[in-house]
Design a protein that fits this description.
single chain, 8-stranded mixed β-sheet, alpha/beta, Rossmann fold, 15 helices
């Protein structure tokens, strides 16, 4: 893997966000999920960079970005706070309007980014999620089993941090391998970056805080905005073999969340950009 990113640090208040940029032209923001870094996108960035200025940050709490301690209300890792990091990045780079693709937790940031900044995002793509409130309000045994980590990571600190810290690589490999068909399916260079990130106790804490925020302050924000709809065209893609595709009619969960939404499933598991890069690129070319 050889990615010639232009790297820089962007400040949002007291938080430094590591940003990786490639290409030129219209801006396209790619937001990774858990438990990864910007290298989630390594298979599609070179192609996209032929047509776009591709911006791949390490989400706050991950990779080269700062990992602040979560506050009592977990607001440091609310999707509103993480979305504000994205706005700071695009402001620093001089892009008033932009398109965005988010995967996993990055897709939840994208949802909030669209709601809080409807005039900034011109098109959005969500990869393999249903709305956070939908999952919490409809959870059953199958969903809770598949998304065990949602309910483990939200436990009060430092219980999950301590248990994960006992063997972080084992936990990381478990999380990746159950969603991509085996750890050998992950590119070695990307995996090394994910492992480096997960060996940092501050990153483990940050990722727990992300999920704690998802079960508390994010739900408060979502409830307050229950009537708000994503204003820009929205594309939703999911893995037919992943739990979202198995247990939800993913497209229907978004139809009352956006004015203009379309979507489809691919024959893969959770990590769409790594498992089906050609198909994802084709979908992005057509939609974006």
């Amino acid at each position: 893997m050889s990615l010639n990113f232009r790297k820089q640090i962007v400040k949002n208040g007291d938080v430094n966000i590591s940003v990786n940029v490639m290409g030129s032209g219209e801006p396209l923001l790619l937001i990774h999920g858990y438990p990864e870094t910007h290298l989630t996108w390594h298979k599609i960035v070179p192609e996209l960079a032929q047509r776009y200025t591709v911006i791949c940050p390490d989400v706050r709490g991950n990779g080269g970005s700062d990992k602040p301690v979560g506050g009592p209300d977990h607001s440091n890792y609310s999707k509103r706070a993480l979305a504000s990091d994205m706005i700071a990045i695009m402001d620093e780079l001089g892009f008033e309007k932009f398109k965005v693709v988010g995967h996993d937790r990055g897709a939840r940031i994208t949802h909030r980014l669209c709601l809080d900044n409807p005039t900034r995002v011109t098109k959005a793509v969500l990869l393999d999620i249903v709305p956070t409130r939908t999952l919490y309000e409809t959870v059953n045994k199958d969903v809770a089993t598949a998304y065990f980590h949602w309910f483990f990571l939200i436990q009060k600190a430092p219980i999950p941090e301590t248990l994960i810290g006992g063997n972080p690589i084992k936990f990381l490999h478990w999380g990746l391998s159950t969603r991509i068909g085996g750890i050998d399916a992950v590119d070695p260079v990307a995996l090394a970056d994910f492992e480096k990130n997960f060996l940092d106790p501050d990153a483990i804490h940050a990722t727990c805080e992300d999920y704690r925020a998802g079960a508390t302050i994010d739900l408060e924000h979502d409830k307050a905005d229950s009537d708000a709809k994503i204003q820009c065209p929205l594309l939703v893609i999911w893995g037919n073999l992943a739990p979202m595709g198995k247990y939800y009619d993913v497209l229907s969960t978004w139809q009352d969340k956006a004015l203009d939404v379309r979507g489809f499933g691919l024959e893969c598991e959770h990590y769409i950009a790594q498992e089906k890069p050609a198909e994802l690129l084709a979908a992005l070319d057509e939609f974006l």
